[in-house]
Amino acid sequence: MNVQTPLRLLELAGKNLLRDEASAIAALEFLPTELFPPLFMEAFYGRHRETLTAMVQAWPFVRLPLGGLMNVPHKGTLKAVLDGLNALLAQKVHPRRCKLRVLDLRNTGQYFWSMWSGDKDHVSSGSLMAPVTEDSSRKEHPMAHRVFIELCLSEAAMDECLLYLLLWVARRKDSVHLCCKKLKIESMPIESTVQFLSMMPLDCLQEVQVNCTWQLATLARFAPFLGQMSNVQRLLFSPLLVSPSEEQEEQQQQMDQFTSQFLRLHHLRDLYLETPSFLQGRLDQMLRCLKTPLDTLSITHFLLMESDLTYLSQCPNISQLKSLDLSGIKLTNFNPELLKVLLENVAATIQELGLDECGIMDSQLEAILPALSHCSQLSSFSIRGNPLSMAIIEKLLCHTDGLPSLTEEFYPAPQESYGSQGTLHLGRLAKLKAELIEIMRALGRPRTIWLSSSPCLHCGDDTFYHMELVTYHCNMPASSLTKAFFWALGH
Asked: Within 13 Å and on the Cβ side, how many CA atoms surround 137?
């Protein structure tokens, strides 16, 4: 028999008060501050729109974190809240109790609501009434109310709520400042994307992620908006393709339209490009437009030319990189000296290095080992999916043994683990793992590495790796070392 949890006295009082909205609105002037959030929640979920509008005008906190309640946006309740803001904007003097300056529509604020509703330990109201942090947009609009939002533009998300909000803000741009710091574009037609970007202030954006398969022509249409994102710090594009029907001259014009916008991005720190086929042989054109040194550069899964790698190894704006990912770029036939120079240039700052599935051979890896051993800040290194022998993996372990911060190491299963048909031989792998433990024990430092085989032999899906943990603890008896093995699945 299910026994429902009885409503608490606070919830009962809120429901009772909202039975007569006129009485509830009249009581707001005398309502204790700590009762505003639970009553607002009752009004929001019960869709008592008149009460919501009145509560916004009397809201005793600086911020109203509405996004923490809007799991499923509802135009009626959003309109009620905005009507309350309309009334505030129309008044030259705010009501005595109202301190509202920020409407937060991001998926945050859950702690605020759960704490005031009794699900969390009580926190004094004063700690939640402090002014929000100033930013550049605030200084430009010193008397404006601010609306914070994070947008995901997709066909599924383009509901009337978002359109209503953007139109509402656009009509009040002198008194309301929309601040969107994160934008994600997913499976959205470029025509609709252009429509919404045209309605948004883009200078607040700090992170932009495009999860669409865009052709270069589409990227060129997006380029003018990218140039307006003057404060963006993090850009992610996945993937970017060139249409084979486009003429070379047309491609170059579109390329120019896109890369020239990087001249305006003075705060860009992290750049992620997946399958940017239009950059083949022209990587320098984009890198030359960077205005600041990057912290992160990820260029993955496309055919890099040797001229591209040559410029990359010498580019001044990557000399302070903390993270570099070149996974999926075939380096088999490249001069390893270029990769060595690249590592030497970032050795003082690099913390994460990804070289998965690059076709790196033993001789190439051996050539870059001295440079790799000088990457003193390196904490994560992945070289999965490369055909490496047991001998070179042993040398790799020796050269990286002196890196004090290195805690995440992902290596391919040695080539000796595979049979003549390319099938992983578990017995051979177990023997090689034991040898690796002996090598680590001889080096004397506690260490954990992951060995991976690809493709996945059990599920038949080459997007998965089988990963196996190999651990050596210097204080563990040798007889117990075999207990440090276990299988795991990972990506």
From this structure: 26
Give the tens place of pLDDT for each residue, 447-456. 999 999 865 4
Q: Looking at beta carbons, which pairs linking 433-438 to residues 24 or more positions away fall under 8 Å? A: 433/468, 433/470, 433/485, 434/482, 435/390, 436/393, 436/394, 436/397, 436/470, 437/470, 437/471, 437/472, 437/481, 437/484
Residue 232 in 3-state DSSP? coil
The SS3 of residue 276 is: coil
Of 293, 296, 283, 279, the closest CA to residue 234 belongs to: 296
336 CB-near residues (< 8 Å, 6+ apart): 363, 364, 365, 367, 368
Look at residue 226 and give its three-state secondary structure: helix
Number of alpha carbons in the 13 Å side-chain half-sphere of residue 179: 24
CA separation for the pair 397, 470 (Å, rounded): 12
Which two tokens mark 124? Answer: 């004094």
Q: At what angle do helices 390-400 and 426-443 cross, to 10 degrees?
A: 30
pTM above 0.90, yes or no: no
